[in-house]
Amino acid sequence: MDIIELFKALVLGIVEGLTEFAPVSSTGHMIIVDDMWLKSEQFLTQYVANTFKVMIQLGSILATVVVFKDRFIDLLGLGGRLNKTTVGPGRLKLSQVIVGLIPAGILGVLFEDYIDEHLFSTETVLIGLVIGAILMIAADRFGPKEPKIQTLDQITYKHAFTIGLVQCFSLWPGFSRSGATISGGVLAGLSHRTAADFTFIMAVPIMFGASAISFYKNLEYFTLDALPFFIVGFISAFVFALISIRFFLKLINRIKLVPFAIYRIVLAGVIALIYFT
Description:
Elements: H1 3-19, H2 26-38, H3 46-67, H4 69-75, H5 94-118, H6 122-142, H7 157-167, H8 177-187, H9 192-218, H10 227-255, H11 258-275
């Protein structure tokens, strides 16, 4: 594998790290960058290329674990309780996170092969970008002006399940997991920051699960030649995700979702113009 291919892995990792936690669709950006410029599937099979995209998402997820390490330690009951006053009916529970994962988890298992084979394309991403943007605008428009849920510890099982239902939309590439779940959280009465925090925490187990399934199904495609490509992508996604998570969490309560929705619509228009002309 030459330096050009490693550069492609670096670029895809950066794109993933910068976009995974913004509601703009990291998968959509990777598909667009790869399909229209990098063409990584010219030297990797389709299944290995898709597995690579899952792996660099895993790099971003590990960055989430670092940022929320105290919260995950608390959820797993490993000691080191959070140094903050409990608000509301009690602390966020691991079982509430699991409830939020159930709807998309079931659909993801049932339709994983179909999604991998038929939905990873520029055309489907354009659809997801636009429809996801509409949902985000609706969330800002119809969500409560003064949300009652201001911390993770105020989230109930009903909130978790509602957000989980909306997360199902993110199985469509381009829709954006964070865009869907933050919108669902805002519509359910959470502040934008709390919805974002819960979104990132839910992303960890679901992406670990997706990675494990993908690795198991495509293990035969991993070779020593492809290994540097995976390592470079993973590291770059991890580093840039650390940067983007902290920046996004400081920003989201202030600017909310509409600016990201406008970006998605403009991006979809530019890509459609380039791709179809």
